Amino acid sequence: PARTTRTDPIVVDISAERGIAADTGICVREGAEATVVIVASAVLAGEATTAALTRIIAERFSTVHIIEIVALDGSHSHLEGLGIDAARDAHVDVRQYFLGGKTVAAGFATNLAGDDATVELSSRYLVADGETLDINHVVRARGRNTREDMAVSGMLADGSAKTLRETIDLI
After folding, report:
1. Residue 15: pLDDT above 90?
2. For every residue of 7-71, which 3-state class applies, written as one string?
3. 167, 138 in Cβ contact below 8 A?
């Protein structure tokens, strides 16, 4: 509801063992605050492909905290897509953790539609043992006085590959 703080996180759980493809839409109402946790994980070894598409609308004066975790072994592949639309004075902070997976492709697109909207993105990764990570971050700043912060760091080891694309479009 508008102007409330949700105490429990909204959890999107993608289990690699079940080969899940999740398509989730979340709306954080005007003046509200919420935490969204998106987790793609595998406990058992075995080849599988999973996907998560999450769309979040942050209405005026809302605050959204997003934690995204992809923790798979070297036999699982995953497609991750996160789209955010931020209205006037909305604040969104995103923490991404990519901790394995045979092939992981992650897309992130934010539309800062309103004036004074902000997004803070922090991505961390560990890619090892011949794994592949492909990350694409796009922020479209449409409103006035928007703020966009993006930071990425991690470790690439043992014949692994990483591709990183980051764009801030001033529209």
Report:
1. no
2. CCCEEEEEEHHHCCEEEEEEEECCCCEEEEEEEEECCCCCCEEEEEEEEEEECCCCEEEEEEEEE
3. yes
Structure tokens at 7: 């105490």
Percent of residues in the chain assigned helix, strand, coil, to nearest 5: 0, 65, 30
Residue 86, both tokens: 């931020």
Distance of alpha carbon 112 from alpha carbon 120, whole angstroms: 12
pLDDT confidence of residue 74? 85
Q: What is the per-residue pLDDT across 115-153, written as a single tens digit (0 to 9) for each? A: 999 999 999 999 999 999 999 999 999 999 999 999 999
98-122 in b/e form (b: 16+ CB < 10 A) is bbbbbbbbbbbbbbbbbebbbbebe
Phi, psi of 17 (to 5 degrees): -65, -30
* Cβ–Cβ < 8 Å for 162, 156: yes
